[in-house]
Task: inverse folding
C-alpha cells in the first residue's frame, strides 16, 4: 500500500476543519479533489475515518488514531526534504509562507524583497492565514514558515519575536461622546464586531480586556478577516479592537473615535518547525526576516499548564 502525502495532508486538513469546503479552501484545491483525496485514504486503509453529519465531519476512533500518525509522518517528510537539500547543497526551491492579512504590519513585502535579492532562485507562495491556521499548517507541513500575531505556544517551533503591536478600542465617530465617557460595562454593551475564531489573537485580547472583568460583549457581527471588520466599523456598524496604526489613521481622517480606557499589546512572531532549523531554505528566509526586522530576537516557547 502506497501512502500519498498530498492525500494525507488533505485528510489532516479535513479532520482539523471538520468541513470539506473549508479544508479545500485552506489547501487551495477544489472540493471534489478534497473529497477524492479523503476517499482514497479511506480506501487504502480499508476503514471509515469520518462520520458524516449534516453540518460537519467527525473523526471515528480509527480516524483519530490515523490523524496522530499522519501528522507525525508529514512532519518527518518535511524533515527528509530538508535533509535532501543539505545533501544536494543547492539553495533553490519554493517556500510556502503564511502571514496575516495585514501586510504592512508583517513587513512581508520587505522580507520577500530581501530574500529575492539574496537568493533569486528561491520562489515564494504567500498564504493569508489567521494565527491559529498558521500554527496548524506549520505542524502538517502545508506551510514552511509563518508570521503571526500570536503567543509562542508550541515547543516544537523555533520562534523569533519581531515586534510588540499595540491595539486600541475604536468605534464610529458618530458615537464619540458615548465612547469617550463610557466605562467598561457601557463599552461592552455597545454593538461589537468580533472575531469568528475564538483562537484568534483579537479574541484573546478581548478576553483579557472584558472577559477577565466578567463582561460579555454585545456581538452583532463576527468576522474572519480584520480588513472586513474595519470596513464594517467605518460604516458605523459597531465597535472593534484594531491595530493602533489603523485606529489612529481612522481618527485622523475623522471616521473613528478611540476609547481612552485601554491599550493592549500583543506579540508579532515568525516561526518554523524546529526540526527544520538547518534547512537552507528556512535559514535563507530567517536571514531575510532579520533584514526586514533588524530588531527581531529568538523567543522561547511559553510553558503551558
Result:
Amino acid at each position: 500500500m502506497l501512502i500519498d502525502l498530498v492525500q494525507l495532508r488533505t485528510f489532516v486538513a479535513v479532520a482539523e476543519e471538520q468541513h470539506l469546503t473549508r479544508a479545500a479552501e485552506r489547501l487551495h484545491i477544489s472540493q471534489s479533489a478534497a473529497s477524492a483525496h479523503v476517499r482514497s485514504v479511506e480506501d487504502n486503509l480499508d476503514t471509515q475515518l469520518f462520520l458524516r453529519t449534516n453540518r460537519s465531519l467527525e473523526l471515528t476512533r480509527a480516524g483519530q488514531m490515523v490523524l496522530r500518525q499522519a501528522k507525525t509522518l508529514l512532519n518527518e517528510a518535511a524533515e527528509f526534504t530538508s535533509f535532501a537539500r543539505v545533501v544536494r547543497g543547492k539553495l533553490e526551491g519554493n517556500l510556502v509562507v503564511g502571514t496575516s492579512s495585514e501586510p504592512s504590519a508583517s513587513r512581508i513585502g520587505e522580507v520577500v524583497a530581501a530574500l529575492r535579492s539574496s537568493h533569486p532562485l528561491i520562489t515564494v507562495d504567500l498564504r493569508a492565514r489567521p494565527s491559529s491556521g498558521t500554527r496548524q499548517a506549520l505542524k502538517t507541513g502545508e506551510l514552511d514558515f509563518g508570521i503571526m500575531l500570536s503567543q509562542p505556544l508550541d515547543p516544537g517551533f523555533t520562534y523569533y519575536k519581531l515586534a510588540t503591536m499595540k491595539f486600541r478600542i475604536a468605534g464610529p465617530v458618530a458615537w464619540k461622546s458615548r465612547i469617550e465617557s463610557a466605562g467598561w460595562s457601557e463599552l461592552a454593551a455597545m454593538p461589537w464586531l468580533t472575531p469568528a475564531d475564538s483562537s484568534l489573537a483579537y479574541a484573546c485580547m478581548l478576553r483579557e480586556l472584558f472577559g477577565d472583568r466578567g463582561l460579555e460583549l454585545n456581538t452583532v457581527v463576527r468576522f474572519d478577516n480584520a480588513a472586513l471588520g474595519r470596513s464594517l466599523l467605518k460604516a458605523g456598524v459597531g465597535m472593534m479592537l484594531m491595530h493602533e496604526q489603523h485606529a489612529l489613521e481612522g481618527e485622523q481622517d475623522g471616521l473613528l473615535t478611540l476609547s481612552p480606557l485601554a491599550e493592549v499589546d500583543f506579540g508579532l512572531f515568525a516561526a518554523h518547525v524546529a526540526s527544520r532549523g538547518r534547512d537552507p531554505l528556512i535559514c535563507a528566509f530567517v536571514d531575510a526576516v532579520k533584514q526586514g526586522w533588524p530588531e527581531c530576537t529568538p523567543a522561547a516557547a511559553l510553558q503551558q499548564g
